[in-house]
């Protein structure tokens, strides 16, 4: 959030924040449970976007566009980019843990050469001061 907000401030742009709710095949007999799980996942997504949007507003005085989608994260990222010609860069935060950068970054790294816009991966170990020096 910090890098994307600083970059938007610097170039006079905006930020689109996407939260993808991963769905699994739902058995019809459990449809009521699936609906409850979906509602809970949407609430969690909204809370996360509220927090991130508040931070972006505090950093760059911008109100990010908020998007919540369901499905495969990689497919949803591509779809949002394909449907919004104003998106000029994808910014992702990499995990600083030993488990690797995260599943989305790992997946997108395989297709980065054919991706429709530049991808910026921000290492999770960078402080806000480090990011200030970069953005």
TrEMBL record:
<protein>
    <submittedName>
        <fullName>Universal stress protein</fullName>
    </submittedName>
</protein>
